[in-house]
Amino acid sequence: MKRRDFIVKGSLASSAAFYAPTVLGYGTPSANETINVGVIGTGDRGGGLIPFINQIPNMRVVACSDIIPFRLSSGLSKVEGKAKGYEDYQKLLEDKNVDAVLVSTPFSTHSQIVTDALKAGKHVYGEKTMAKGYDGIKLLVDAAENSSTIFQAGHQYHSSRLYTHIVDEIKKGKIGKITAFECQWNRNNNWRRPVPDPKWERMINWRMYREFSGGLLAELCSHQLDFANWVLGAMPEKVMGVGGIDYWKDGRETFDNIHLIYSYPKGVRASFTCLTSNAMGDYKVKVMGDKGAYILDYVKAWYYPEGSFEKEVGEVDGVSGATLNWDQGRGIPVNFDHEDPSKQALIDFKDNILNNTLPISNAKTGAMAALCVQMGLDAMYGNTIVETDTKMVKEIVG
């Protein structure tokens, strides 16, 4: 029986259901079974995830693939030579010893490589943004729905127990009616990787070229778009945005700064800013409601209630709030023990395979974020307001 018979279905009005784990109906392997992983793309991200896999019980890297020789060597070195190396990812997919693959290749290749891996019978963890272009997104969703294996989209904050806790609190009404999101991801560097030989420029710095990349929106802001979709259980209705190559005049094609506003149902607006010329504030997600707000960074969160909270507590203890656990400008720290989000996402991937459960970050939630990215790119590149094509979205995500 095909996996599509078990995947949650429904209209966009019920898209919140996409964010709930679902038990699938095919056979369950032993909980003690070791998952043999092949890593396709051993650059900064793929290579950076290998040490996490090494730390997870019942998970091990047995194969690596990369078309750049020194990237492949670097990936293999992180498993101390205990994995096979393949220049051609198709050869890795033919390896019967590989149960699952992690796809961390340039954005433009995600759809084809993931589709090939699913057709080869491999479980797949596909890095964000899930796929490039409307056709690529649909191709991957169709492949996942018609596969008997697990596909997990690589939006690791979905797996963060801190982020999950915050989403639960928001949905319980902790900050009241949501009115806005303010998101940023600022850096002060040129975002380039060193190139030992000019012939590798476009392969290593693919993020700089529109043919391969969605730029800052796809590589960074996509995580925050995914979070907004998750909290609201909805897709935006339209987006406007601007960007430019205004600081790094180095031949890049993707923008070095972007500023977008997405309009969601019920009047909720979400802004996204990403700079490469100033790092003030770094990464931040702010969710604002009529009773308070949550502020999140990579691994921490704060609750900021509306009203005179500091004043009230100061009056109670008589020393102007001296004992209050309050961070100026942020609010009350949320104390919550949790694992690194990237490591937790890989643990969840393993558990989804062993327990045959549909990942909370799956092909359809990944598609929603990818569609938001493509809409934003269309808005910036076309200097226009892009409205959601609801017919196309329904065809892709149900």
Automatic annotation (TrEMBL):
PANTHER family referenced in this protein's UniProt entry, alphabetically: BCDNA.GH03377, NADH-DEPENDENT DEHYDROGENASE-RELATED
Classification via SUPFAM superfamilies: Glyceraldehyde-3-phosphate dehydrogenase-like, C-terminal domain, NAD(P)-binding Rossmann-fold domains
Domain spans labelled Gfo/Idh/MocA-like oxidoreductase C-terminal: 169-384
Pfam families in alphabetical order: GFO_IDH_MocA (PF01408), GFO_IDH_MocA_C (PF02894)
Coiled-coil portions: none
Ranges where the Gfo/Idh/MocA-like oxidoreductase N-terminal domain occurs: 35-155
Name of the featured protein: Gfo/Idh/MocA family oxidoreductase
InterPro entries: Gfo/Idh/MocA-like_OxRdtase_C, Gfo/Idh/MocA-like_OxRdtase_N, Gfo/Idh/MocA_oxidrdct_glycsds, NAD(P)-bd_dom_sf
One of the record's GO molecular function terms: nucleotide binding
